[in-house]
C-alpha cells in the first residue's frame, strides 16, 4: 500500500530496507515491526536523515552503546532548574524560548548521539528501549500479547496535544504503508 504515499523509487528502496531491519529486530526482541517502521519513516524522513545509522536519534549512553558516539546539533527541552548542569556539559547551548512560564526551556546544543554499525542494530536498540526502559516497558508488558502496536502508541504518546499529534502521524504512516493491525 505504499502507493498511498506516492513514494519515489529511492523511498521504496529505503522502506524495504527499514522493513527488513524491523523484521530482524522483531525476531530478536518480539517487538512489533510496524511501529518501528512508522517511527523510522517519521524520524529519518524516509531514510534521508540517519547519521551514524541512528534514524531514531537515540542519545549516547556509555553503559548501553558499545559501538560509539557522534556529536550532532540537537533541539532539546531542558527543565529550567537543570539548565546550569546542561550548560556545563554543553557550554555552547543557546536558549531559544521558554514554555510553561519558564519551567521548560527550548535549547539548541551539540549533543552525543549513539552511532551504530548498522541499521539493524539501531532497530533492535529502539525495540529494547520500549521493552526495558520506563515508562515504556510497563505499557509493553501490558500490551505485548495483544498484537496492538496502535494501542501501545496511543498509551505511550500521552494525553497532551503534542503526543496526540505524534500518535496520529504514526498511525497514518502505519495505515499508509499497509502495516496496520
Write a brief structural summary.
The protein is of the alpha+beta class and 181 residues long. Helices cover 48% and strands 15% of the residues. It has helices at residues 9-29, 33-44, 83-89, 119-132, 136-143, 149-157, 161-176, and strands at 69-79, 94-99, 104-114.
What does this 3D model show about the protein?
With 181 residues, this protein is an alpha+beta fold. The protein has two domains: 114 residues, Lysozyme (Orthogonal Bundle), CATH 1.10.530.10; 45 residues. It is built from seven helices and three strands; from the N terminus they run ααβαββαααα. It has a three-stranded antiparallel beta sheet with strand order 1-3-2, with no helix packed on it. The longest helix is centred in the N-terminal third of the chain and has 21 residues. The protein starts with 8 loop residues before the first helix and ends in a 5-residue tail after the last helix.
CATH structural class of the largest domain: Mainly Alpha
Average predicted local confidence, pLDDT: 88
CATH architecture term of the largest domain: Orthogonal Bundle
Determine the number of helices (DSSP H or I, runs of at least 4 residues).
7
Q: Looking at the structure, what is the overall shape? A: globular
Q: What is the total domain count?
A: 2
CATH topology of the largest domain: Lysozyme
Spatial gap, N to C terminus: 14 Å
- Beta-strand percentage range: 15-25%
Say how many strands there are: 3
Category from helices, strands and their pairing? alpha+beta
Task: Please state how the strands of the largest beta sheet are arranged side by side.
Answer: 1-3-2
Q: What composes the largest sheet?
A: 3 strands, antiparallel
Low-confidence stretches: none
Radius of gyration: 17 Å
Helical residues, percent: 40-55%
Order of secondary-structure elements? HHEHEEHHHH
Amino acid at each position: 500500500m505504499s502507493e498511498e504515499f506516492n513514494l519515489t523509487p529511492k523511498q521504496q528502496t529505503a522502506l524495504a530496507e527499514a522493513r527488513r531491519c524491523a523484521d530482524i529486530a522483531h525476531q530478536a526482541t518480539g517487538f512489533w515491526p510496524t511501529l518501528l517502521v512508522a517511527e523510522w519513516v517519521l524520524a529519518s524522513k524516509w531514510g534521508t536523515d540517519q547519521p551514524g545509522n541512528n534514524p531514531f536519534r537515540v542519545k549516547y549512553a556509555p553503559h548501553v552503546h558499545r559501538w560509539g558516539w557522534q556529536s550532532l546539533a540537537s533541539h532539546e527541552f531542558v527543565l529550567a532548574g537543570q539548565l546550569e548542569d546542561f550548560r556545563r556539559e554543553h557550554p555552547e547551548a543557546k536558549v531559544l524560548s521558554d514554555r510553561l512560564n519558564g519551567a521548560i526551556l527550548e535549547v539548541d546544543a551539540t549533543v552525543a548521539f549513539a552511532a551504530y554499525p548498522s541499521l539493524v542494530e539501531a532497530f533492535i536498540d529502539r525495540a529494547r528501549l520500549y521493552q526495558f526502559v520506563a515508562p515504556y516497558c510497563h505499557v509493553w508488558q501490558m500490551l505485548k500479547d495483544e498484537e496492538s502496536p496502535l494501542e501501545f502508541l496511543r498509551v505511550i504518546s500521552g494525553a497532551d496535544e503534542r503526543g496526540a499529534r505524534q500518535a496520529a502521524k504514526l498511525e497514518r504512516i502505519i495505515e499508509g504503508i499497509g502495516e496496520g493491525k
